[in-house]
Amino acid sequence: MITDQVKAHDTSLPCKNNNFSYDTKPTSITRLTSWPMGKVDPAAALAMARPEFGEHGGVNLSIENSITFTVMEAETMRRMFEGELGPERDFFIYSRHFNPTVMALSRQMAALEGTEAAYCTSSGMAAVSSVLLQLVSSGGHIVASRTLYGGTHALLSHFLPRVSKITTTFVDVRNHEMVRDAMVEGKTKVLYFETVANPTLTVANIPELSRMAHEKGVTVVVDNTFSPMIISPARLGADVVVHSCSKFISGGADIIAGAVCGSKDLVNSMMDLHQGTLMLLGPTMNAKVASELSQRIPHLGLRMKEHSNRALVFAQRMKNLGLKVIYPGLNDHPDHQLLGSIANKDYGYGGVLCIDMGTEERANRLMNLLQNHTHFGLMAVSLGFFETLMSCSGSSTSSELNGEEKELAGISPGLIRMSVGYVGTLEQKWSQLEKALLKMKDVV
């Protein structure tokens, strides 16, 4: 059977000299990238993407557990290693390179984000680090937001300077003049920021930041973990979109995974035998994980709508009780209008809100009440779970930042990051939240 495929596609794919080239078939995925920026409903894009059936016609994708793949003729293997035959024509060599099940998930991620291609990784940090190391050579320069997930901040401020002399200038992404001045044409290779910042919920003006970066020849890499479906960075001008799929995309708090969404050229370069970070560092996604995620992405839009709906209701009601609430869906949030202008219609303002309790002690007291007395949610890091998850960011997911860095990032010692879940009824969960707030008599 494989021999017949070789004959059928003998001259259909030009060799790209990177040995394992990724090339999307001419499906609606690539056509969608030409639509007006920000005007494509991600759910519609997913529905138009290439369907994937099981091996025997099953409605669910088959799981390809094999790490290595046979050929019927020895000559076929040589041609695959030379890049003449590849995964886009269903020729596979080894699952650290490409795996059929993982590629199917990658196509979904490309459709979701409106990019030519995608590659799914073993974690979100694997996606971030692989992209940055591919785009920035030793001694290179990055400009990044001051407000980032703590692990990413540590990668930029400590790890990359030590191992590769890559330096980063941290900026306030709201201050466009500061961003522009920090980017040095010919030296700065990447502008990196989060669509909605972790944990302060600052919203980045992706179209303007991308325009400024491109004027100086800088590649724009955006972490869209907090806002899948809600915002489509690539359709707004970003070059690369990364995800921690462990969060909203998974939705079950049971999977560690990541994704890189970008051009075919980027994915191909990252799979190069001699220079590719994905090929050589090996952040490989397991096929079983890919299969699980591929069955969750179709209802991601429904989940995001409910996360966003409840977050907005709770934020409005807590604000009415006199709490200091940070949520982009509130009219007084400084980025409320910006988010409304770049967001995809109908998915809301996101499933994460923050409550600033002033001190870590007061924050811990409230979270203790919410978990152990009223059973509103769980004290745990991460987000996107069907249960509400809450943590004091300064002493948990942002603990890699020092005191001065936290202050510059706007992270208060008493900032509670709350990923709002959707179990139970909305009024039932509000009652549990309100009871805990009322016990904090010095707060309300």
TrEMBL record:
Its cofactor is pyridoxal 5'-phosphate. One of its GO terms (cellular component) is cytoplasm. InterPro entries: Cys/Met-Metab_PyrdxlP-dep_enz, PyrdxlP-dep_Trfase, PyrdxlP-dep_Trfase_major, PyrdxlP-dep_Trfase_small. Keywords: Pyridoxal phosphate. SUPFAM superfamilies: PLP-dependent transferases. The modification N6-(pyridoxal phosphate)lysine is found at K247. GO terms for biological process: transsulfuration. GO terms for molecular function: carbon-sulfur lyase activity; pyridoxal phosphate binding. Pfam families: Cys_Met_Meta_PP (PF01053). It comes from the Eukaryota. Belongs to the trans-sulfuration enzymes family. PANTHER family: CYSTATHIONINE GAMMA-LYASE, TRANS-SULFURATION ENZYME FAMILY MEMBER. This is Methionine gamma-lyase-like. It comes from Cucumis melo (Muskmelon). The gene is LOC103482860.
